[in-house]
Design goal:
mainly beta; Porin; 8-stranded antiparallel β-barrel; 1 helix; 61% strand
Length: 213
């Protein structure tokens, strides 16, 4: 066999060997509606300094308690399947929860009121996704990390921090390329717009469509 013919045969063999692996490599894009749970945001008392003759303890004018309410949102994803069961994804999530502050224990006995502040919340991150099988209805688990940014409606308070998440769900194939994806995750955030700084874990539920190509 001539050298040229041998090179052609070798090239064909390499293509045949690589082609199945390439055929298994798939990209996926998706979008979903989300629901993010609320959490207790703490509170703060309004104090007035007394005169020295009245004592050193400040006078409490009123107290507050706050809660970030649950909110709908949206998430967009792009993923790459490393194998038939393992994928890595990048995502961008947006929601607009409301921080509701209730006034209580007023020194003058006034009835309690409330104030609301809308928060723009962004999460950009990545995940590893492990699928269990390749049936039409396939369960999966996922875990990853992200970057959280929150901004109040007055654009005065800005919070950024680390976000960690883990969860799972199911994917139901409508066709070879299109599927429905539903999942629930726990999102741990080291910072949030609140009256105290501590890590909070909030539930996130998402449901939407995915297209694989």
């Amino acid at each position: 066999m001539s050298l040229g013919r041998s090179a052609v045969v070798l090239l064909v063999a390499c293509v045949a060997a690589v082609r199945p692996a390439a055929a298994q490599s798939r990209f996926e894009i998706g979008a979903a509606a989300t629901w993010t749970g609320g959490f207790d945001a703490g509170g703060q008392d309004a104090l007035e300094t007394r005169s020295p003759s009245s004592g050193s303890t400040p006078l409490t004018l009123f107290g507050t308690s706050s809660r970030v309410q649950s909110a709908p949102g949206a998430i967009a994803r792009v993923g790459v399947f490393l194998t038939s069961r393992l994928a890595v994804e990048g995502h961008a999530e947006y929601s607009r929860p409301t921080l509701r502050t209730t006034f209580q224990d007023d020194f003058e006995g006034a009835t309690g009121g409330a104030a609301e502040n809308t928060i723009a919340s962004f999460v950009i991150g990545g995940s590893a996704v492990l699928y269990f099988g390749s049936a039409r209805l396939t369960p999966f688990v996922s875990a990853g990390a992200g970057w959280l940014r929150q901004l109040d409606e007055e654009q005065v308070l800005v919070v950024t921090g680390l976000e960690l998440h883990a969860g799972g769900g199911v994917k139901y194939g409508l066709s070879r390329h299109v599927s429905i994806r539903v999942e629930a995750t726990a999102s741990a955030r080291d910072k949030s717009i609140a009256f105290d700084e501590k890590r909070r874990v909030v539930p996130v539920i998402a449901g939407g469509m995915a297209y694989r190509f």
